[in-house]
Amino acid sequence: MGAASGRGALVAALLGAALGSVGAEPSHTLAEVLFCQPDTPSLGLAVAFDAEQLFSFDFPNSRWLPHLPDGPAWPTGIEEPHELQKDAALCRDLRDLLTKIATGPLPMPEAKGIPVADVFLQQPLELGRPNTLVCMVSNIFPPAISISWERDGVPVTDGVTHVTYTPSEYLGFTRFSYLALTPHSGDIYACIVTCERDNTSVVSYWVPQDPIPSDMVATAVCGAVTVLGILLALLGLGLLLSARRRGRWGQWGQWGQRGH
Prior knowledge:
CATH architecture of the largest domain: Roll
Strand content: 35-45%
Helix content: 25-40%
InterPro entries: Ig-like_dom (IPR007110), Ig-like_dom_sf (IPR036179), Ig-like_fold (IPR013783), Ig_C1-set (IPR003597), MHC/Immunoglobulin (IPR050160), MHC_I/II-like_Ag-recog (IPR011162), MHC_II_a/b_N (IPR014745), MHC_II_a_N (IPR001003)
Shape: elongated
Transmembrane segments: 217-241
Number of domains: 2
Main location: membrane
GO biological process, one term: immune response
Largest sheet: 6 strands, antiparallel
Subcellular location: Membrane
Structural class: alpha+beta
Order of helices and strands: EEEEEEHEEEEEEEEEH
């Protein structure tokens, strides 16, 4: 696929394989996306399974990288670096061709997505204990954004880890950024997503909410269970008394009929 604007064109080649049983809709998707563009990064390649990135290719160092630090290595003999360099050269040629068309007398419309940022903790919140804050940025197109962090309005760079772009099923991209932190009450964290091409930013904030202490939760649960048990016992007692009263009234009715 390709997208163009006044600054140039982005070219992305998608190779997808649908996995599923014969005669049924595919239940899983394996996708490999190669893109090149005039923005930074100029080249990108990722392999994803159901929109979860497995591998990415580091073009400057000409090597495959697993998404997880302790993940398996890329299998040898498959898509060697020299083969990918040929694909990258072809992608650049197509980009240059589309750029000429886009800047000609009949410019091509620009395809662009507005990034959406969601910030959340990787582990349950416990004030004063180390954790990781995750900024998930979706609906990215073209893949040319920068992500930065702030705490109480001050930029934070220590403990920050950025992940490469992951292709999505909607022909866009998703990117993650991680911030190692120790949350405290009153902190205000911000994930700032900047679109390099338009110089616009999207900001998503996260503020730690005071969690309910575990002992208070346990006490509340025990109290609720106790109250529920008492109510059920009273209900059972009421039903038992009602049944006995009905039985007595039935016996008295039979005696009255015999007396007549």
